[in-house]
């Protein structure tokens, strides 16, 4: 089982968020027990930006057992298609292409996505299994 992880879950853990941190940590541990945790290049960059240095970010990601899996051409194309649907339906630019790349990466390169942003991903990536750290499942 490959679980793609969204930035919000990692930042919950790395920032020791009192509200979401414990559940996100448990969800990461559960994902590791079931298989592999991966992050896309977008999630890696978003997460690393929260650290003062690249080495610190890489050490933190390694500590939680997350592997890097670059977004491939198929996932990028899937993201483009979903973005086009979103924008043609009048979707505002409050969502950026990066969000669509995260979802498409999970669709193509993983079995499910661990995220707290399940409503967005549910709408634009209908076949994707969404796991919310709070325990709510799609």
Summarize the structure in short.
This protein is an alpha/beta fold.
Characterization of this structure:
This protein is α/β, with parallel strands linked by helices and 138 residues long. The chain has a single domain, classed as 3-Layer(aba) Sandwich (Rossmann fold). It is built from seven helices and five strands. The chain has helices at residues 7-14, 21-34, 41-48, 54-63, 73-88, 97-109, 118-124, and strands at residues 2-5, 36-39, 66-68, 112-114, 129-131. Strand 4 (112-114), helix 7 (118-124) and strand 5 (129-131) form a beta-alpha-beta unit.
> In CATH terms, what is the fold-level topology?
Rossmann fold
How many DSSP-defined strands?
5
The CATH top-level class label: Alpha Beta
The residue fraction in helices comes out at 55-70%
Runs in which pLDDT lies below 50 for 5 or more consecutive residues are none
Mean model confidence by pLDDT? 92
CATH architecture: 3-Layer(aba) Sandwich
Overall 3D form: globular
For the biggest sheet, the summary is: 5 strands, parallel
Structural class: alpha/beta
Spatial strand order of the main sheet:
3-2-1-4-5
Spatial separation of the terminal alpha carbons: 16 Å
| Count of helical stretches | 7
Number of self-contained structural domains: 1
CATH superfamily: 5'-nuclease
Q: Which radius of gyration do the C-alpha atoms yield?
A: 14 Å
Which percent range describes the beta-strand content?
5-15%
Order of secondary-structure elements? EHHEHHEHHEHE
Brief descriptors of the model:
138 residues, alpha/beta, Rossmann fold, 5-stranded parallel beta sheet, 7 helices, 5 strands, 12% strand, globular
């Amino acid at each position: 089982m490959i679980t793609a992880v969204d930035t919000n879950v990692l930042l919950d853990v790395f920032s020791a968020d009192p509200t979401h941190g414990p559940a996100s940590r448990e969800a990461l541990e559960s994902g590791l027990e079931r298989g592999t945790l991966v992050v896309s290049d977008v999630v890696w960059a978003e997460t690393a930006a929260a650290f003062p240095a690249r080495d610190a970010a890489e050490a933190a990601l390694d500590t939680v057992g997350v592997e890097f899996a670059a977004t491939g051409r198929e996932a990028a194309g899937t993201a483009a298609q979903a973005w086009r649907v979103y924008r043609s339906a009048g979707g505002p630019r409050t969502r950026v292409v990066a969000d669509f790349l995260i979802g498409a990466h999970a669709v193509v390169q993983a079995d499910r996505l661990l995220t707290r942003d399940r409503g967005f991903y549910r709408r634009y990536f209908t076949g994707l299994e969404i796991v919310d750290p709070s325990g709510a499942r799609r």
